[in-house]
Write a structure and sequence with these properties.
The protein has helices at residues 5-8, 12-33, 35-44, 65-70, 104-120, 139-150, 163-173, 182-194, 215-225, 338-345, 383-401, and strands at residues 86-90, 98-102, 128-131, 154-156, 177-180, 205-209, 228-235, 240-246, 253-255, 260-265, 279-285, 296-302, 304-305, 317-318, 329-331, 334-336, 351-362, 365-374, 406-410, 425-427. It is an alpha/beta fold and 432 residues long. The protein has a 9-stranded mixed beta sheet, sandwiched between helices. A 4-stranded mixed beta sheet has the order 19-18-17-20. Helix 11 (383-401) links the parallel strand 18 (365-374) and strand 19. The longest helix is centred in the N-terminal third of the chain and has 22 residues, at 12-33. The chain is globular. 44% of the residues are buried. The protein binds 5'-O-[hydroxy(phenylacetyl)phosphoryl]adenosine. 5'-O-[hydroxy(phenylacetyl)phosphoryl]adenosine (DLL) binds at residues 90, 133, 139-140, 209-212, 231-236, 240-241, 298, 300, 321, 324, 330, 335.
């Protein structure tokens, strides 16, 4: 394992033939096994047999996060539940999470994709890799873990939360690789610097993703830790981390195109855009069994290049992400939709659903504050009462988004009203 040259360096004509065969197969499976998707196709009058070329994908309807929400929890599973061996979940737009299920084949395919990414970062069976993404419903921890085991690396399931222990074990074990969010790696680097321990580490490479970051930040991490830092991308709906990753040339992220067919569309018109143009990334899963998704709108903004890379790989490359076409925030690697905060507020009768979300970066860690208006007419001069409501709001928000939050209650009508779209978010983080 595992520079899978046969696949990763395949002639494009050969790759496209494989993609077409698998596209026809997945469209047929979705049509036969998923009522919601069959209804969508029937509505536009397309049958699986209409897919004769890759370009015919443009005839197919898109899928969105709301399709997963409307079919919560298992209505998007295309196989009997007895064939599902793992379930993960990510943030939905309101109180309920987006649920994803994997068959044994899906887990193997996912592990192979992550293994390819780790290999792109120069890691292999002689390495000791600390996985410091969260383990649990989030796909980061287990996703990176299985890929790391597949390349034969000694895999350390650190998870998140105890930086001191992580740093101690990084030194004691002589860890050579780390998988975690870029902001967390920067925090780890600064912890090592402050403790004067940089010279004690053996780290060679990292794979970082799950949140937006910049080329400057990547270089800063490389300089501080003397490593090669790689950008890994993925989303739970596709499988998790490992949909794409950059190689040692850092000229875009190689898509695992034998499993995920990318398109770039204009987020307004949904019309396809040309190579090099920035738009919304749309993916079709070509092989996934548990939840096949056709033309899934990721909401991530990027551009694509089909030029062969200096490394020899022929797969399409997507550029570093330029933002999103919706209002999702990523805070400490966790996806947060303003509508989730609103759902939490609606459960507390003493507050109005008028709020402002303030995100800041202190050091390298994100902080989240939510200012909430008390309901009009509510007069709470008792400090104890104010404290009780503040705690209840904070608890409700934390239960839904899974992150601790500072809540500040403010006077009725004090949050600025907008004539147009309400401005709910003040993101003070400067990504440079
Ligand atoms: O974040 C999967 C993942 C885990 C990727 C670990 C990489 C590493 P979700 O929680 O479903 O899945 O969030 C997916 O995170 O649509 C992007 O907006 C954002 N995202 C993920 N990777 C990157 C990246 C995981 N490298 C959402 N750069 C996606 C920018 C990223 N944004």
């Amino acid at each position: 394992m595992i520079w899978n040259k046969e696949i990763e360096c395949m002639e494009r004509s050969e790759l496209e033939a494989l993609q077409l065969k698998n596209l026809q197969d997945v469209v047929t499976r979705a049509y036969n096994n998923l009522k919601y998707y069959r209804d969508k196709m029937d509505k536009v009058g397309v049958k699986p047999s209409d897919i004769k070329t890759l370009k015919d994908i443009e005839k197919l309807p898109f899928t969105t996060k709301s399709d997963l929400r409307d079919n919560y929890p298992f209505g998007t599973f295309a196989v009997p539940q007895s064939e599902i061996v793992r379930i993960h979940a990510s943030s939905g737009t309101t109180g309920k999470p987006t649920v994803v299920g994997y068959t044994k084949f899906d887990i193997d395919m996912w592990s192979e994709c992550v293994a390819r990414c780790l290999t792109m970062a120069g890691l292999g069976k002689d390495d000791i890799i600390q996985v410091a993404y969260g383990y649990g419903l989030f796909t980061g921890g287990l996703g990176a873990h299985y890929g790391s085991e597949l390349i034969g690396a000694s895999t350390v399931p650190m998870s998140t939360g105890n930086t001191k222990k992580l740093v101690d074990l990084m030194i004691d074990f002589g860890a050579t690789g780390i998988a975690c969010t870029p902001s967390y790696l920067l925090h780890i680097a600064e912890t090592l610097e402050n403790e004067g321990l940089i010279d004690k580490i053996k780290l060679k490479a990292s794979i970082n993703g799950a949140e937006p970051w910049t080329e400057n930040m990547r270089k800063m991490i490389e300089e501080k830790l003397h490593i090669s830092a790689h950008d890994i991308y993925g989303l739970s709906e596709m499988m998790g981390p490992g949909v794409a990753c950059d190689c040692i040339y850092h000229k875009g992220l190689h898509v695992c195109e034998d499993h995920f067919l990318p398109e770039i569309v204009d987020p307004e018109t949904l019309k396809p855009l040309a190579e090099g143009e920035t738009g919304e990334l749309v993916f079709t899963t070509l092989t996934k069994e548990g939840i096949p998704l056709i033309r899934y709108r990721t909401r991530d903004l990027t551009s694509i290049s089909y030029e062969k890379c200096e490394c020899g790989r022929t797969s399409a490359r997507i550029s570093r992400f330029k933002g999103r076409s919706d209002d999702m925030l990523i805070i400490r690697g966790v996806n947060v939709f303003p509508s989730q905060i609103e759902t939490a507020l609606l459960q507390v009768k003493e507050v109005a659903p008028q709020y402002l979300i303030i995100v800041e970066r202190q050091g390298n860690l994100d902080t989240l504050e939510v200012q909430v208006e008390l309901s009009s007419g509510a007069l709470f001069d008792e400090i104890r009462e104010i404290e009780r409501i503040t705690k209840e709001v904070a608890k409700n928000i934390q239960q839904i988004i899974g992150l601790s939050v500072k809540v500040k209650l403010v006077e009725p009508n004090s949050i600025e009203r907008s004539m147009g779209k309400a401005k709910r978010v003040l993101d003070k983080r400067k990504l440079s």
